[in-house]
Design goal:
The complex is a heterodimer.
Chain A: E1 4-7, E2 10-13, E3 18-25, E4 31-37, E5 44-50, E6 53-56, E7 64-70, E8 73-79, E9 87-94, E10 105-106, E11 110-114
Parallel strand pairs in A: 2-11
Antiparallel strand pairs in A: 1-3, 3-8, 4-5, 4-9, 5-6, 7-8, 9-10, 9-11
Chain B: E1 3-7, E2 10-14, E3 19-26, E4 33-38, E5 44-50, E6 56-58, E7 64-68, E8 73-78, E9 87-97, E10 101-106, E11 110-115
Parallel strand pairs in B: 2-11
Antiparallel strand pairs in B: 1-3, 3-8, 4-5, 4-9, 6-7, 7-8, 9-10, 9-11
The chains are: A mainly beta, B mainly beta.
Chain lengths: 115, 116
């Protein structure tokens, strides 16, 4: 199984809502990532979890909050988002045996629209 | 700091023609380079990668890329385009993040169109 799953596929939320994105992998990978991809742009890294230790891209606003309940699951909690946060949110995972050389396996993404 | 530059935001070829997507990198250390493909409304899929060893790397779907250190390039090619190759292609370099983790730094992407 080389699949990373993400739910939901689509999400529409208001600026006062709280919602969560979910990512799951069963490949035994020890690193998981959240990327944000705006239309016609490349993905940009938001967070990395490796061995359940979080590394944050300091440019990411605090209205995005990652959570790693276990090594297979990665959530992204959303609160008080802005319309400019509308994007495709991609989750990825990698084995973390040789981090710089490894393939990152991407999920299909959650397309988020903030009204 | 590592970076990649993809020349040409949009490339159009005829079915059966050669595909050439250009990528140049900048890195102060030996780079690890990747090509990913993204089909509409989907995530990214690895086509191929260069880490060490052979400089000509073969990937999935008939794609290959050659690492040329003297030219700081990692161009992606395919001898004969298929309609199913129409997609967005991203070149990426791996960089350190958080002290030890790998972070993919992507180029801006090249959209490949294939004409019948």
């Amino acid at each position: 199984d080389t699949e990373v799953t993400q739910t939901p596929k689509h999400l529409v939320m208001g600026m006062t809502n709280k919602k969560s994105l979910k990512c799951e992998q069963h490949m035994g990978h020890r690193a998981m990532y959240w990327y944000k991809q705006k239309a016609k742009k490349p993905p940009e890294l938001m967070f990395v979890y490796s061995y359940e230790k979080l590394s944050i891209n300091e440019s990411v606003p605090s209205r995005f909050s990652p959570e790693c309940p276990n090594s297979s699951l990665l959530n992204l909690h959303l609160h008080a988002l802005q319309p400019e946060d509308s994007a495709l949110y991609l989750c990825a995972s990698s084995p973390y045996e040789a981090p710089l050389q490894e393939t990152q396996y991407f999920g299909p993404g959650t397309r988020l629209l903030v009204l | 700091a590592q970076s990649v530059t993809q020349l040409g935001s949009h490339v159009s070829v005829s079915e059966g023609a050669l595909v050439l997507l250009r990528c140049n990198y900048s890195s102060s250390v030996p780079p690890y380079l990747f090509w990913y493909v993204q089909y509409p409304n989907q995530g990214l899929q690895l086509l191929l990668k260069y880490t060490t060893g052979a400089t000509l790397v073969k990937g999935i779907n008939g794609f290959e890329a050659e690492f040329k250190k003297s030219e700081t390039s990692f161009h992606l090619t395919k001898p004969s385009a298929h309609m199913s190759d129409a997609a967005e292609y991203f070149c990426a370099v791996s960089a350190e993040y958080g002290g030890s983790q790998g972070n993919l730094i992507f180029g801006k992407g090249t959209k490949l169109s294939v004409k019948p």
